[in-house]
Amino acid sequence: MNKQAWNISSGRMPLFRRPFHEYSLRGRVTLSQMPLSVTVGFTAVLVLAFFPETLPNPLFISFLVSQVIILVLCYAVPWERLPYPSFLVIPLLDLVSIALGREGGQDSLTGISLMAVFPVIWLCASGVFPRTAVALSFFGPLGIIWLPLLIKGDVSGQDLARSLLLPIMMLGIGVSITVMTLSMVRQQRDLEDKDSQLQGVLDGSKRQERLLNTVLDTVHLGVLAVDADGNDILMNRKQRAHHQLASPPDNPDPNESQLLVFAQDRTTPVPVEERPVRRAVLGEQFTDYLVWLGSGDEQRAITTSARPMTDQDGNFAGSVIVFSDVTDLVDALAAKDDFVSNVSHEFRTPLTSILGYVELLLDDDDLTDYQRGPLEIIQRNSERLLTLVSDLLSSRRGQLIISPHAVDVAELVRASISAARPKAAESGISLRFDAPEQLEAHVDSARISQVLDNLVSNAIKYSPDGGEVTVSLRSEDKHVVCSVSDNGMGMSEQDQKEAFAKFFRSESVRNSAIPGVGLGLSISKAIVEAHGGTVSLRSAKGYGTTFTFALPA
Q1: Are 246 and 293 in contact (CB under 8 A)?
Q2: Which one in 175, 366, 408, 531 has a CA-CA gap of 20 to 30 Å to 11?
Q3: Is the pTM of this model over 0.70?
């Protein structure tokens, strides 16, 4: 057999201690010869028992001796050292040997020529030279029958035709065996190709796995993947450290409910159903969920984010949770808030003193209108600064108090524009006002004035090259809507996303000489939202900005 066909059989048979293809080539040749040798042995026993007169026949003795010699050759010849198809000489010798046996024993036993089926099967199943093997499957048995007839002479056409059935049967067997063998060879090649492809995919998968593990162990984020049942699929080095940090001292392998996970106050344990991993297992998607892990001085602030995984049918298959240590950031924010709080407390005392003295001056009835005007501006801006200080303190505590009452918002807009005119004139900016004569709403007048002053002041401040600032006021769907537009420097899309964050100032503004601390928009947004309203912006870099806020009327 060729190397592929010869290795096709891999199943175990009771006769063999191991699969056929695992034997050496010498062993496979010997085993392939064994069926014919066993059959010849039975034939010898039958002749000895029932036809002893056949044994002295030289041809029959040659048949038996040649079979013994052929079996010895199968085992003795080092076939591995010879060209691969050289072992096919054995079935050819078998055909010659069977021809001798047929002539020597046909008077006592019929059917010896049927033994030709064994070498025919061997030749055709080898897969080597398949066309030659098919031809031999016909001409070999035909030669076994015809050659003796032709040697004896005086043979008729009827004698030759009478013996054609066996060669034709052998041809059919040979063709069938050859077709099956070639088919099996093709199947084996296909399997080998697929096995090679699978091995390549497996090797690639292992490389990707090693790369993924290396990347995950390199990043400074904890990464945990869980399946739909909450079982860990993947945990990188950083997350193992987080898990160790959250483990109780007396429990080296705690489950999720036993981990030391605390809320933002650092002391209240987070309920099991609200813990990041549990929420992720339930299919939730969240971002920047802050918890504290561990206890004592080693406690760390961790923000967690989770995204669900789905299978090919779209069903929930687990989640990936990312843990980020933000302890230093949390401590820095706390220090900043403490600093702002301390500075605000220091500002409150002198501002209160300034307001007290201004009120005393304004109580003087002898003041002229020329003198009273600047004092009222001082009073108004001092009150605004005191309100800003209070807002800083409120922002530190997370509180913002409003006192709504019936107010003419149009008058608040006019007052804000009037206060901003000197600064606008100094900057070469034209102020325009588009509003009805009167528009009432239930709001905190001081707070809304603060919002207007912030937005108008910003519009003037961020239009360094002059231009026009327009303040419009209108009633829309039971809401009071106010817009402040300028054609100044504008903002990028990234800056717009962070415009309302506390202490945010864009890079272009920080690089300019424009003063500010980045609190105005944050406080204005908090005031509007405290009224149940909304605030938005629309801007384009180099083309200006429009801020719009809407309040329930």
Answers
A1: yes
A2: 175
A3: no
